[in-house]
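ok so heres the complex, two chains, lmk if somethin looks off
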Amino acid sequence: QSVLTQPPSVSGAPGQRVTVSCTGSSSNVGAGYAVHWYQHLRGTAPKLLIYEDYNRPSGVPDRFAGSKSGTSASLAITGLQAEDEADYYCQSYDSTLSSWVFGGGTKLTVL
Amino acid sequence: EVQLLESEGGLQQPGGSLRVSCAASGFTFSSYAMSWVRQAPGKGLEWVSTISSNGGGTFYADSVKGRFTISRDNSKNTQYLQLNSLTPEDTAVYYCAKGRGWKMQDWSFDLWGRGTQVTVSS
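and the predicted structre for the whole thing:
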């Protein structure tokens, strides 16, 4: 059971917009620690999508956007494409655990 | 080319030991913290351990503290993870990851290897 809670799955049709939520608490997201997002296709190397709440690394399309408010963060994906079908994870730091933590992951299905 | 390449993992019996390594190329290895993240079958990503750029600071998840040891050799651009007292719950793909960021608690992982399978079974 992760301290960062994500929905197990989300889905959308090509071209649509979906959001993935990441709910934490006052010892992680709510404490102001940065939230990062990763895209992972099983069997491949995970890829950093968003760092420090809303920043995109070079090469990540602007269809991916991150936001944070209070104890929660969100990843929005617009203009859904078939290639976006993957698992998405949020990550932050937890002061109670004194460790970096990942959310449980969200499987995105493109219908 | 910027990349991280893990060594081959393997099959170990419960209580056994194994060392995995991660060779870095294409960036100044000695300038960055490095980490290990694992994914058990059917589960999500789990942070395992992190080592600071000069090796002076090491950090471990509670699930592996006292059993796993992270280290690095900056002259060889390589980091290591020594896994001792293995249990079936340690069965996972182990990923090597490069840290980014200024403030330790806000570190993210901006470069990952493809992972190495470690299986613990009798």
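quick notes: The radius of gyration of chain B is 14 Å. thats all i got rn
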